[in-house]
Amino acid sequence: MIGMLSGVCLMAGTGEAILDCGGVGYLVQCGSKTLGNLQEGTPARLHIETLVRETSITLYGFSTEESRAWFVRLQSVQGVGPKAALAILDILTPGEIMSAAALEDKTAFSRASGVGPKLATRIATELSGKKPPTGRGFQAAFTPPVTVADGEAARNEGLSDMQLRNDAVSALENLGIGQSEALRAVAKAYGTFPDDPDLDDLIKTALKELSN
Question: What is the pLDDT along the chain (212 residues), one digit of tens a residue?
Fold first, then answer.
């Protein structure tokens, strides 16, 4: 099973890329957000989810482990396949998926290509109240991938966004607040800030949401 590929990007086209890893070219299916961080002829590292079927083996690549983990989590919802999961990850960061699920915001999910109102409602309902996936947990997974410099800010923003929300939810749970309530309060509180807030400010605002 392949968990990560590191090499040189030979091609980044529509929906797929080829990575040369030690002389072997791996064809990887990617969303447009991931492809936007790749540049032909430059080093690249992708977190991989391998889908094995009777007649094919398909590799799906992601810039971060969080995105890969959400790709798997989204497909736990009936009716969500790889194509729909990639489409959702193209329009929502892991942190935004977490917020949309906590608030049961079906509109956020319905913006993804191929996700209709009924499926969006099912996604929001089934993911509501659940903690985000933990991922594979190895240290390298949380190191920014080696790609073009222009993509670094966007990837790091998604990572810090997810960590910030998780830390705030954990803090509320430590105060005796239920998981579902904590997720919903943090999602509402986060939406009130124009930029990533300090953890303390996010926690205080979430507590105010709970008191309303």
Answer: 789 999 999 999 889 999 999 999 999 999 999 999 999 999 999 999 999 988 889 999 999 999 999 999 999 999 999 999 999 999 998 888 988 998 899 999 999 999 999 999 999 999 988 888 877 764 443 444 434 434 444 444 455 677 788 888 888 888 888 888 888 888 888 888 888 788 888 888 989 888 87
Across the chain, which distance is largest between two alpha carbons, in Å? Answer: 60
Q: Please identify which residue in the block is written with the tokens 């499926």.
A: 119
Q: In angstroms, rounded to a whole number, what is the distance separating the alpha carbons of residues 11 and 160?
A: 29
Domain boundaries, the chain: 4-62, 65-127, 147-205
Per CATH, the architecture of 65-127 is what? Orthogonal Bundle (1.10)
Burial class (CB in 10 A: 0-12, 13-18, 19+), 78: exposed
d(CA 188, CA 143): 29
The answer to whether the CB of 88 falls within 8 A of the CB of 106 is no
Cβ–Cβ < 8 Å for 209, 183:
no
Which class is domain 4-62? mainly beta
